[in-house]
Design a protein that fits this description.
The protein has a domain of 130 residues: Alpha-Beta Complex (Nucleoside Triphosphate Pyrophosphohydrolase), CATH 3.90.79.10. The longest helix has 23 residues. The chain contains twelve helices and eight strands. The two termini are 30 Å apart. It is α+β, with helices and mostly antiparallel strands and 326 residues long.
């Protein structure tokens, strides 16, 4: 907000600056969509954020839920919202047994959310409240209340039903079925994945590559890496991974092979564990160095100080932080 305080400044920012500012926040498609939306607002709406629901929905990166949240909370329009918290509240209060991801059930939930925010606009103000103030905030407060109710009271596990302001209307509370609803079906089992990254040092400079467009974490930087199996002796697996990574790079245009590089450590520089959706990822970073200097490589050779100016994926940023500052 300090660096890009206006829609116009977002529209004009360089992709490099955008990704660096967003570094570590994840969901990097969002920051690219934010800039596309900013450019669309400047080009079609004179630089002012639109207030019409269809115009908001047409902005890149904004779907039905986000458009509804913006129009109701910012502009007090009776537009429904349906996120995970609201789904949990509605399925429990109304005793909806079906999976909320099913098409018909999802449509029913949207209709319930629409009815509730519509009633908020029509209901009379509380005694002593100013009518104008009530009309100004009713839709906004209704949708924010639904989200907050799900976030702090009607939680996924051990909901605080005794403090819930709508417990007397709640089917799940009356039937003691809070743990059964919402019925999200069988949770997909977590999948373990193992990656090996190579910290290749050449005279104090390290090789990094930018992820291509159209993949997860597109345009961010990382050390050369490859996914390997979860089994096998680590040393042999790492050597095999180095061969796979460098031979693969040669096929895509890099004029070097695995025999040009060697592992120079007996244990990883660091081991990083993190999760992305249902994947439980282990990333090992191994030091390596070139046996001979190729004239051209796929990627950039940069000092640690220069690398810190680039936007890295969260896991590879942790590898970078293990390197000595130069």
């Amino acid at each position: 907000m300090r660096e890009l305080p206006t829609i116009q400044s977002v529209a004009k920012a360089s992709p490099t600056k955008l990704h660096k500012l967003w570094e570590g926040l994840g969901y990097y498609t969002r920051v690219r969509n934010m800039q596309k939306a900013a450019k669309q607002i400047v080009g079609r709406h004179g630089g002012k954020f639109p207030q019409n629901f269809d115009d908001v929905l047409a902005l890149p990166g904004i779907g039905r839920y986000t458009a509804g949240a913006i129009c109701s909370i910012a502009f007090n329009q009776p537009t429904p919202i349906l996120d995970g918290n609201v789904i949990r509240v509605l399925t429990r209060v109304f005793g909806i047994d079906e999976n909320p991801r099913d098409k018909e059930t999802n449509a029913r939930l949207w209709k319930l959310a629409e009815d509730l925010v519509g009633r908020a606009l029509r209901c009379p103000p509380r005694r002593g409240a100013e009518t104008a103030l009530h009309l100004e905030s009713s839709c906004s407060h209704m949708n924010q209340s639904l989200m907050e109710l799900g976030a702090i009271v009607c939680t996924p596990r051990s909901p605080n039903c005794t403090s819930c302001p709508v417990k007397k209307y709640c089917v799940a509370f009356r039937q003691n079925r809070q743990d059964e609803l919402p019925n999200l079906g069988k949770r997909e089992a977590a999948t373990a994945r193992r990656f090996v990254a190579f910290v290749i040092n050449r005279n104090g400079r390290f090789l990094v590559r930018q992820r291509p467009n159209g993949v997860v974490n597109a345009h961010l930087w990382e050390f050369p890496n490859v996914e390997i199996g979860m089994k096998g002796r680590a040393r042999r697996s790492v050597r095999a991974a180095l061969k796979l990574q460098m031979n693969g790079a040669q096929r895509t245009g890099a004029p070097y092979q695995s025999k040009d590089f060697s592992i120079v450590s007996t244990r990883p520089l660091c081991v990083i564990k993190h999760s992305i959706t249902r994947y439980r990822i282990t990333l090992e970073a191994w030091r390596a160095e070139p046996k001979q200097l190729p004239f051209k490589v796929s990627g950039l050779w940069r000092t640690p100080a220069q690398l810190h100016k680039l936007a890295f994926t969260a896991a590879h940023k942790r590898i970078l932080n293990r390197l000595p500052a130069q």
